[in-house]
Specification:
homodimer; mainly alpha; Arc Repressor Mutant, subunit A; 2 domains; 6 helices; DNA-binding
DNA sequence: CTGCATCCGACCGGATACTG
DNA sequence: CAGTATCCGGTCGGATGCAG
Protein backbone atom coordinates (compact mmCIF):
# COMPACT_ATOMS: atom_id res chain seq x y z
CA UNK A 1 0.00 0.00 0.00
CA UNK A 2 2.79 2.38 0.79
CA UNK A 3 5.48 0.45 -0.97
CA UNK A 4 6.09 3.23 -3.42
CA UNK A 5 7.67 5.02 -0.53
CA UNK A 6 10.45 2.50 -0.19
CA UNK A 7 12.08 3.02 -3.56
CA UNK A 8 14.06 6.21 -3.94
CA UNK A 9 13.61 7.81 -0.62
CA UNK A 10 15.88 5.41 1.11
CA UNK A 11 18.58 7.70 -0.18
CA UNK A 12 17.32 10.60 1.83
CA UNK A 13 16.87 8.65 5.02
CA UNK A 14 20.56 8.28 5.31
CA UNK A 15 21.14 11.94 4.60
CA UNK A 16 18.43 13.70 6.53
CA UNK A 17 18.04 11.84 9.77
CA UNK A 18 15.02 9.84 10.64
CA UNK A 19 12.61 12.67 11.33
CA UNK A 20 11.76 12.94 7.66
CA UNK A 21 10.73 9.34 7.38
CA UNK A 22 8.96 9.38 10.73
CA UNK A 23 6.97 12.49 9.91
CA UNK A 24 6.15 10.97 6.57
CA UNK A 25 4.73 7.91 8.25
CA UNK A 26 2.71 10.04 10.62
CA UNK A 27 1.29 12.15 7.83
CA UNK A 28 0.44 9.04 5.91
CA UNK A 29 -1.79 7.83 8.72
CA UNK A 30 -3.27 10.95 10.29
CA UNK A 31 -2.79 13.36 7.42
CA UNK A 32 -5.59 14.89 5.46
CA UNK A 33 -8.17 17.50 6.16
CA UNK A 34 -10.39 15.57 8.54
CA UNK A 35 -8.73 12.77 10.48
CA UNK A 36 -7.30 14.82 13.31
CA UNK A 37 -10.45 16.88 13.59
CA UNK A 38 -12.54 13.75 13.96
CA UNK A 39 -10.19 12.40 16.59
CA UNK A 40 -10.31 15.65 18.52
CA UNK A 41 -14.08 15.79 18.56
CA UNK A 42 -14.34 12.19 19.72
CA UNK A 43 -11.80 12.76 22.45
CA UNK A 44 -13.53 15.85 23.74
CA UNK A 45 -17.11 14.73 23.44
CA UNK A 46 -16.86 11.02 24.17
CA UNK A 47 -19.51 8.93 22.46
CA UNK A 48 -20.77 10.63 19.34
CA UNK A 49 -23.27 9.45 16.76
CA UNK A 50 -22.75 9.71 13.07
CA UNK A 51 -24.97 12.65 12.29
CA UNK A 52 -23.91 14.54 15.39
CA UNK A 53 -20.33 14.02 14.39
CA UNK A 54 -21.03 15.34 10.93
CA UNK A 55 -22.78 18.42 12.31
CA UNK A 56 -20.13 19.08 14.93
CA UNK A 57 -17.26 18.93 12.51
CA UNK A 58 -19.04 20.93 9.87
CA UNK A 59 -18.36 20.99 6.17
CA UNK A 60 -17.86 17.26 5.77
CA UNK A 61 -20.23 15.15 3.69
CA UNK A 62 -21.62 11.83 4.84
CA UNK A 63 -19.67 9.93 2.27
CA UNK A 64 -16.35 11.41 3.23
CA UNK A 65 -17.04 11.10 6.93
CA UNK A 66 -17.95 7.48 6.44
CA UNK A 67 -14.73 6.78 4.61
CA UNK A 68 -12.64 8.62 7.14
CA UNK A 69 -14.22 6.73 10.01
CA UNK A 70 -13.52 3.41 8.31
CA UNK A 71 -9.93 4.45 7.85
CA UNK A 72 -9.60 5.56 11.44
CA UNK A 73 -11.17 2.36 12.68
CA UNK A 74 -8.80 0.27 10.60
CA UNK A 75 -5.87 2.09 12.12
CA UNK A 76 -7.15 1.69 15.63
CA UNK A 77 -8.03 5.29 16.42
CA UNK A 78 -11.78 4.91 16.57
CA UNK A 79 -14.14 2.26 17.78
CA UNK A 80 -17.58 1.75 16.33
CA UNK A 81 -20.21 0.73 18.87
CA UNK A 82 -23.59 -0.52 17.76
CA UNK A 83 -26.53 -0.53 20.12
CA UNK A 84 -28.65 -3.17 18.44
CA UNK A 85 -31.29 -3.09 21.14
CA UNK A 86 -32.57 0.25 19.95
CA UNK A 87 -34.93 1.10 17.14
CA UNK A 88 -33.76 2.49 14.95
CA UNK A 89 -30.28 1.16 15.55
CA UNK A 90 -27.98 3.59 17.27
CA UNK A 91 -24.32 3.73 16.35
CA UNK A 92 -21.76 5.55 18.38
CA UNK A 93 -18.15 6.26 17.71
CA UNK A 94 -15.61 6.55 20.50
CA UNK A 95 -11.93 7.29 20.53
CA UNK A 96 -9.66 4.42 21.46
CA UNK A 97 -6.87 4.32 23.97
CA UNK A 98 -4.43 4.34 21.11
CA UNK A 99 -5.75 7.60 19.78
CA UNK A 100 -4.73 9.12 23.11
CA UNK A 101 -1.12 8.71 22.05
CA UNK A 102 -1.79 11.54 19.63
CA UNK A 103 -2.30 14.01 22.45
CA UNK A 104 1.19 15.54 22.16
CA UNK A 105 0.77 15.93 18.42
CA UNK A 106 -2.62 17.56 18.80
CA UNK A 107 -1.35 19.80 21.58
CA UNK A 108 1.63 21.10 19.65
CA UNK A 109 -0.47 21.59 16.54
CA UNK A 110 -3.12 23.46 18.49
CA UNK A 111 -0.60 25.70 20.19
CA UNK A 112 1.13 26.45 16.94
CA UNK A 113 -2.17 27.15 15.25
CA UNK A 114 -3.12 29.65 17.91
CA UNK A 115 0.15 31.54 17.79
CA UNK A 116 0.14 31.43 14.01
CA UNK A 117 -3.25 33.05 13.86
CA UNK A 118 -1.98 35.72 16.21
CA UNK A 119 1.03 36.33 14.01
CA UNK A 120 -1.10 36.67 10.92
CA UNK A 121 -3.37 39.18 12.57
CA UNK A 122 -0.42 41.26 13.69
CA UNK A 123 1.02 41.03 10.22
CA UNK A 124 4.38 39.76 11.37
CA UNK A 125 6.58 37.78 9.00
CA UNK A 126 6.86 40.28 6.14
CA UNK A 127 10.30 38.77 5.73
CA UNK A 128 12.23 36.08 7.57
CA UNK B 1 -10.80 31.86 1.18
CA UNK B 2 -11.71 29.81 4.17
CA UNK B 3 -14.90 31.63 4.89
CA UNK B 4 -16.93 28.50 4.49
CA UNK B 5 -15.42 27.52 7.78
CA UNK B 6 -17.11 30.35 9.60
CA UNK B 7 -20.68 29.27 9.01
CA UNK B 8 -21.72 26.23 10.97
CA UNK B 9 -18.64 25.43 12.89
CA UNK B 10 -19.04 28.31 15.20
CA UNK B 11 -21.41 26.01 16.96
CA UNK B 12 -18.70 23.54 17.71
CA UNK B 13 -16.15 26.06 18.81
CA UNK B 14 -18.23 26.76 21.82
CA UNK B 15 -18.73 23.09 22.52
CA UNK B 16 -15.35 21.57 21.75
CA UNK B 17 -12.82 24.01 23.03
CA UNK B 18 -10.48 25.91 20.83
CA UNK B 19 -8.15 23.06 19.91
CA UNK B 20 -10.39 22.05 17.04
CA UNK B 21 -10.26 25.42 15.40
CA UNK B 22 -6.58 25.85 16.13
CA UNK B 23 -5.63 22.49 14.69
CA UNK B 24 -7.78 23.27 11.71
CA UNK B 25 -5.87 26.46 11.10
CA UNK B 26 -2.58 24.64 11.42
CA UNK B 27 -3.61 21.93 9.00
CA UNK B 28 -4.78 24.54 6.57
CA UNK B 29 -1.32 26.06 6.39
CA UNK B 30 1.08 23.17 6.83
CA UNK B 31 -1.19 20.30 5.87
CA UNK B 32 -0.77 18.18 2.80
CA UNK B 33 1.67 15.55 1.75
CA UNK B 34 4.74 17.70 1.18
CA UNK B 35 4.90 20.94 3.13
CA UNK B 36 6.33 19.60 6.37
CA UNK B 37 8.74 17.37 4.52
CA UNK B 38 10.08 20.32 2.56
CA UNK B 39 10.46 22.33 5.73
CA UNK B 40 12.30 19.51 7.45
CA UNK B 41 14.77 19.05 4.63
CA UNK B 42 15.49 22.75 4.46
CA UNK B 43 15.99 22.93 8.20
CA UNK B 44 18.37 20.00 8.24
CA UNK B 45 20.32 20.74 5.11
CA UNK B 46 20.40 24.54 5.11
CA UNK B 47 20.58 26.03 1.63
CA UNK B 48 19.19 23.66 -0.95
CA UNK B 49 18.73 24.14 -4.66
CA UNK B 50 15.59 23.22 -6.53
CA UNK B 51 16.69 20.01 -8.16
CA UNK B 52 18.54 18.84 -5.08
CA UNK B 53 15.44 19.46 -3.04
CA UNK B 54 13.39 17.46 -5.47
CA UNK B 55 15.81 14.56 -5.38
CA UNK B 56 16.18 14.63 -1.62
CA UNK B 57 12.48 14.59 -0.93
CA UNK B 58 11.80 11.93 -3.51
CA UNK B 59 8.56 11.25 -5.30
CA UNK B 60 7.59 14.87 -5.86
CA UNK B 61 7.31 16.31 -9.35
CA UNK B 62 8.79 19.65 -10.34
CA UNK B 63 5.42 21.18 -10.84
CA UNK B 64 4.16 20.23 -7.42
CA UNK B 65 7.39 21.19 -5.72
CA UNK B 66 7.28 24.55 -7.41
CA UNK B 67 3.75 25.17 -6.23
CA UNK B 68 4.50 24.04 -2.71
CA UNK B 69 7.52 26.29 -2.50
CA UNK B 70 5.48 29.26 -3.67
CA UNK B 71 2.94 28.48 -1.00
CA UNK B 72 5.53 28.09 1.70
CA UNK B 73 7.21 31.34 0.68
CA UNK B 74 3.91 33.18 0.80
CA UNK B 75 3.33 31.96 4.32
CA UNK B 76 6.82 32.89 5.44
CA UNK B 77 8.30 29.44 5.95
CA UNK B 78 10.77 29.53 3.12
CA UNK B 79 12.97 32.14 1.55
CA UNK B 80 14.03 32.07 -2.07
CA UNK B 81 17.56 33.32 -2.68
CA UNK B 82 18.78 34.07 -6.18
CA UNK B 83 22.48 34.28 -6.96
CA UNK B 84 22.34 36.35 -10.11
CA UNK B 85 26.08 36.58 -10.43
CA UNK B 86 26.31 32.98 -11.50
CA UNK B 87 25.80 31.36 -14.85
CA UNK B 88 23.51 29.68 -15.07
CA UNK B 89 21.58 31.40 -12.34
CA UNK B 90 21.61 29.56 -9.05
CA UNK B 91 18.56 29.57 -6.82
CA UNK B 92 18.62 28.38 -3.26
CA UNK B 93 15.85 27.86 -0.78
CA UNK B 94 16.38 28.33 2.91
CA UNK B 95 14.11 27.91 5.89
CA UNK B 96 13.10 31.09 7.66
CA UNK B 97 13.22 31.88 11.32
CA UNK B 98 9.48 31.56 11.42
CA UNK B 99 9.60 28.00 10.20
CA UNK B 100 11.61 27.22 13.32
CA UNK B 101 8.47 27.73 15.35
CA UNK B 102 7.29 24.46 13.87
CA UNK B 103 9.97 22.52 15.70
CA UNK B 104 7.65 21.28 18.45
CA UNK B 105 5.12 20.16 15.88
CA UNK B 106 7.72 18.33 13.86
CA UNK B 107 9.22 16.77 16.95
CA UNK B 108 5.95 15.40 18.26
CA UNK B 109 4.98 14.15 14.84
CA UNK B 110 8.31 12.44 14.36
CA UNK B 111 8.19 10.79 17.77
CA UNK B 112 4.67 9.62 17.21
CA UNK B 113 5.56 8.33 13.77
CA UNK B 114 8.40 6.28 15.18
CA UNK B 115 6.39 4.71 17.94
CA UNK B 116 3.51 4.11 15.58
CA UNK B 117 5.69 2.18 13.21
CA UNK B 118 6.89 0.12 16.13
CA UNK B 119 3.34 -0.60 17.17
CA UNK B 120 2.38 -1.69 13.70
CA UNK B 121 5.29 -4.06 13.45
CA UNK B 122 4.43 -5.62 16.78
CA UNK B 123 0.83 -5.89 15.73
CA UNK B 124 -0.52 -4.05 18.73
CA UNK B 125 -3.93 -2.39 18.55
CA UNK B 126 -6.10 -5.35 17.61
CA UNK B 127 -8.76 -3.62 19.63
CA UNK B 128 -8.85 -0.47 21.72
C1' DC C 1 -30.87 7.10 11.83
C1' DT C 2 -26.81 5.21 9.56
C1' DG C 3 -24.86 4.69 6.12
C1' DC C 4 -23.68 2.62 0.98
C1' DA C 5 -24.13 2.99 -4.38
C1' DT C 6 -24.02 5.68 -8.25
C1' DC C 7 -23.39 9.53 -11.10
C1' DC C 8 -20.57 13.15 -12.43
C1' DG C 9 -17.99 17.51 -12.35
C1' DA C 10 -13.78 19.61 -10.31
C1' DC C 11 -9.36 19.37 -9.23
C1' DC C 12 -4.86 17.15 -8.40
C1' DG C 13 -0.82 15.90 -10.15
C1' DG C 14 2.36 13.10 -13.54
C1' DA C 15 4.65 13.33 -18.12
C1' DT C 16 6.45 15.84 -21.52
C1' DA C 17 8.12 19.64 -23.89
C1' DC C 18 9.64 24.11 -23.70
C1' DT C 19 11.89 28.89 -22.05
C1' DG C 20 15.42 31.88 -19.85
C1' DC D 1 19.79 24.81 -13.71
C1' DA D 2 15.16 26.47 -12.51
C1' DG D 3 11.24 26.44 -13.47
C1' DT D 4 6.60 27.04 -16.67
C1' DA D 5 2.81 25.46 -20.11
C1' DT D 6 -0.03 22.10 -21.75
C1' DC D 7 -2.16 17.88 -21.98
C1' DC D 8 -4.74 14.49 -19.75
C1' DG D 9 -5.91 10.44 -16.83
C1' DG D 10 -7.11 9.47 -12.09
C1' DT D 11 -8.96 10.55 -7.96
C1' DC D 12 -11.69 13.37 -4.71
C1' DG D 13 -15.79 14.58 -3.21
C1' DG D 14 -20.68 16.70 -3.51
C1' DA D 15 -25.54 15.44 -4.59
C1' DT D 16 -28.93 12.29 -4.84
C1' DG D 17 -31.36 8.12 -4.08
C1' DC D 18 -31.97 4.01 -1.60
C1' DA D 19 -31.45 0.20 1.98
C1' DG D 20 -31.17 -1.84 6.70
Amino acid sequence: MENTVETEEVVCRGRCGESLSAVEDAIYVIGGKWKLKIIIVLQELGNVRFNDLQRTIGGISARVLSNELKDLELNGFVKRVVHADQTPVIVEYISTHYSKTLKPVIMSLAEWGISHKKNIREDVFENK
